[in-house]
Amino acid sequence: MARRSDHSRDELREMALNAAEDIVAKEGYFALSTRRVATAIGYTVGTLYLVFRNFDDLILQINARTLDALSARLARAEGEPEGVARVLALGRAYLGFATERPRLWRMVFEHRMAAGAPLPDWYGEKVARLFGVVENALRPVLQDRPDPELMTAARVIWSGVHGICLLEVTERLEAVGSPPGAALVESLIVQYLRGLRASA
Amino acid sequence: MARRSDHSRDELREMALNAAEDIVAKEGYFALSTRRVATAIGYTVGTLYLVFRNFDDLILQINARTLDALSARLARAEGEPEGVARVLALGRAYLGFATERPRLWRMVFEHRMAAGAPLPDWYGEKVARLFGVVENALRPVLQDRPDPELMTAARVIWSGVHGICLLEVTERLEAVGSPPGAALVESLIVQYLRGLRASA
DNA sequence: ACCTGAACACCGTTCAAGT
DNA sequence: ACCTGAACACCGTTCAAGT
Predict the structure, then answer these.
(1) Is B192 part of the contact surface with chain A (CB cutoff 8 Å)?
(2) Domain check: are B134 and B153 in the same one?
(3) Structural domains counted in chain A
């Protein structure tokens, strides 16, 4: 052993991320470990540290891919006609993504950096881009409104849809005997926007 | 050693839960371990297993206390005059609780049972009771509406407020340059209810 | 240069053995 | 009866040593 060079650094990285994604998708965040990923790709743990800074970094890289996939999904909703319909399509797309990949989606929001370590800039930028998509869809709906109100509305709808997805994905909705998430997303967006447009 | 009987089972339980709460409150979910709790109360790990079924059970017991504290906090908001004001008070109380005890609050929603093990009944009942508080506050506001609509509204508002708390507590709001959570909670509740009442 | 294998300091959980 | 202490099978991380 030692000095195998069966795979380039990039290939190693790709293999590790795929294996890790697989574990999370099938068994969830807490089943993920460096040792399992190493075994899955046929290397020892030590090798992973040649490719990732540490476990946090590995998780962050998976989350980055999840965020990119989510972006791609939301981009499809941007084909909808401008207006409330497009905002609704975004909400449904978000819910669809969350319910189809519940474990990867949850990891994005549950992972916490080791105390003190801030999220890297490129990560914050990916999140900001998602907010931007919602703001853009909202602009035509609230075109006569001041900018801060648009920002507030985008965040209310975003976090509202996010909260609904969470309760749906963690099965806290059905536990309490509830309409399906899609109905809640629709009610939230339609009524909230109606209220906003009806107000002064 | 062995056979100390310095403390009754109940005292042991109480001491362990207090120590564990302290660790979570100060350092978060991931700093919690059976060994740390044991050390903090001056016993060995083995002793904890005389009082808790396992680590999951210990966490569940802490979460139960957090849910009770949350219930108590929301109960105070029930003193507000009936109507939108009371719903708003509930939303603010929820946000207040989440921001004051961010780490304990998060643990309630992030903890997952070991694969397959369902949440115990008494736990589901505590959550259902919280939903009930929101439904009750909403009833006078939507008194002319059919029951399913009330349920939907309660869940939309609950998960919306929850989502706002999450983004606030995990600092994903300020990262993206946002109005404070309280403004979002108010916008959500006021405009959503306005929309609902304006509709047919 | 690349990768291993063993070490270190941790985990949750169990249970024979001591008092 | 009550609690310990050691064991077991795991962790993340590091790094001297092998090829």
Answers:
(1) yes
(2) yes
(3) 2
Task: Taking residues B37-60, report their average pLDDT.
Answer: 97
Residues B83 and B174 grouped into a single domain: yes
Answer yes or no: do B64 and B144 share one domain: yes
The two structure tokens encoding residue A88: 């609704």
In this prediction, residue A55 has a pLDDT band, given cuts at 50, 70 and 90, of very high
Which residue, chain included where needed, has tokens 């047919």? B200
Query: Which tokens sit at A177?
Result: 């005997």
- Give the Cα separation of A159 and B117 in Å (integer): 29
Q: What is the largest CA-CA distance in chain B?
A: 74
Q: Nearest 5 degrees, angle CA A71-CA A63-CA B99?
A: 95
Instruction: Please report where in the chains the tokens 């009930």 appear, as a residue.
Output: B132
Which of A100-104, A122-126, B2-6 has the largest mean confidence? Answer: A100-104
H helix intervals, chain B? 9-27, 34-41, 45-51, 55-77, 84-100, 102-110, 121-138, 147-169, 181-198
Site from B156, B161, B184, B185 to mutate, A interface, most A CB atoms within 10 angstroms: B156
Count Cβ atoms below 10 Å from residue A191 Cβ, excluding itself: 22
B30 vs A contacts (CB less than 8 Å): 112
Q: What is the pTM of this model?
A: 0.93
